[in-house]
Amino acid sequence: MPTYYEDLDTILGSRMQKTITHTVHVKDVPYGEIDPCFAQKYSDELDDQWKFFYCNYMYLVTWNRDVDQPRLTTGWTEIREHLELQYHYQLLGLVYYGDSMFHLELEPIRDSSTYGLPSFHSLSAKPIEGSLTFEIAIPTDPNSTNQLILNQDLAEYITSFHHCLLLEGPVAEPMYSPIIKSVDQDQVTTYQVDGWSNFCRENYFSNGDIVKFTFFDIENSNRVDVDWVSH
């Protein structure tokens, strides 16, 4: 159970932050991955249990002391349940103050894909030698509009090669889907994959599903395989 404090400034206020690192909440995954560079640099001073501070609460979480594949283990699930994280993927900033003490920062949600995850994470989707793989979480709310809005960095990378995709699902015939770029009155740019709801219906994808996109040769082909991963 977390410990409540009236004023966290009495604990962290006089300290100087040393660095900022990150971890990622992934739904149904019982551990949080940590940047190996952080673990290697600070392992000598890190206790077995780390103290996370957020909104007047202190949480204790254990790490596995593996500097090559560092993970948050015991206590990680309890933190996420207490914070009531609703998204399939959630980036969390960890501001390190020394003595195994961290201030927890919830990063804004930009999209439901793995493309925006840090490069150290095992689910991070970065283009390698022409290929590109990432996962999308279809919203769990059955009343939500089933649209596919791409992460802006991801969309700009894809549209540098193609403005129309050939989506190949596990069941239906391949579908041509333009990527529609729009700018709203606040000058916010969005990239939407047209026809996504029809594609999901024809391939029996449903709310809450995780699907994987794979470009095998993105520079030369607009074909992308879309496969069901989990629910």
Give an overview of the whole structure:
The chain has 5 helices and 15 strands. With 231 residues, the chain is α+β, with helices and mostly antiparallel strands. Helices cover 15% and strands 35% of the residues. The mean pLDDT is 86. A hairpin with a 6-residue loop joins strand 11 (164-168) and strand 12. It folds into 2 domains: 3-106, DNA-binding pseudobarrel domain (At1g16640 B3 domain), CATH 2.40.330.10; 132-230, At1g16640 B3 domain (Beta Barrel). The strands form 3 sheets. A 7-stranded mixed β-sheet has the order 9-14-15-11-12-13-10. It has a 6-stranded mixed β-sheet with strand order 1-5-4-8-7-2, covered by helices on one side. A two-stranded antiparallel sheet has the order 3-6. The longest helix is centred in the middle third of the chain and has 8 residues, at 76-83.
What features would you highlight for this structure?
single chain, 231 residues, alpha+beta, At1g16640 B3 domain, 2 domains, 6-stranded mixed sheet, 5 helices, 15 strands, 15% helix, elongated, transcription, DNA binding, nucleus
- Spell out the CATH superfamily of the largest domain: DNA-binding pseudobarrel domain
Helix content: 10-25%
Structural class: alpha+beta
Q: At the third CATH level, what is the topology name of the largest domain?
A: At1g16640 B3 domain
Radius of gyration: 20 Å
Subcellular location: Nucleus
Keywords: DNA-binding, Nucleus, Transcription, Transcription regulation
GO molecular function, one term: DNA binding
Main location: nucleus
Secondary structure elements and pairings:
Layout: E1 3-4, H1 9-12, E2 19-26, E3 32-33, H2 36-42, E4 49-54, E5 57-62, E6 71-72, H3 76-83, E7 89-96, E8 101-106, E9 132-137, E10 149-150, H4 152-159, E11 164-168, E12 175-183, E13 189-193, H5 196-202, E14 210-215, E15 223-230
Parallel strand pairs: 4-8, 11-15
Antiparallel strand pairs: 1-5, 2-7, 3-6, 4-5, 7-8, 9-14, 10-13, 11-12, 12-13, 14-15
Organism: Trifolium medium
Keywords: DNA-binding, Nucleus, Transcription, Transcription regulation
Main location: nucleus
